Amino acid sequence: MRKLAEKAESLSEASGGAAFLAFFTYAVDQAAGQSAYADALSEAADAAGGEQAVSRVGTELAEALGTLLTRAQDAGAIRTDIGVPELIALLIGSARAAERIGPDVRARALAILLAPGSPEGAARSREPRPPEAIFQ
């Protein structure tokens, strides 16, 4: 968990959008080989939610994620209606999925998830895709 917190802290000084995307991708790629990363993110989620029994590293990770998120939002790279708890939930879900999917699917899923978007764009209905197209 210390390694994940250190990576987030080191990137928090870099430019907003690029640093955020680099950390998100790094965390998910690391989780592909170790479920401990998703567990570390769960501890950061506890810290972001105000839980008391959280390690110092969990708190540091939550704070560093907050800095990365704010800088990315200020740069216009990430939607402004997402907070640290939602970010951590997305990271945990992506990290858990990364344990089960191959690198090509993981890369495409991250590209979809991290594509710039707005709340208005997310609310628009889209043409449904046939089931066979979803799993290609």
Structure report:
With 136 residues, the chain is mainly α. It has one domain (2-134). Helices cover 68% and strands 0% of the residues. The protein has eight helices and no strands. It has helices at 2-11, 16-31, 36-48, 56-74, 84-98, 103-113, 119-123, 131-134. The longest helix has 19 residues, at 56-74.
Structural class: mainly alpha
In round numbers, the mean pLDDT is 75
Radius of gyration: 15 Å
Shape category: globular
Task: Compute the number of structural domains.
Answer: 1
Number of distinct helices? 8
Question: Which percent band covers the strand fraction?
Answer: under 5%
Assembly level: single chain
Topology order in helix (H) and strand (E) letters: HHHHHHHH
Reported for the largest beta sheet, the result is: none
DSSP strand tally: 0
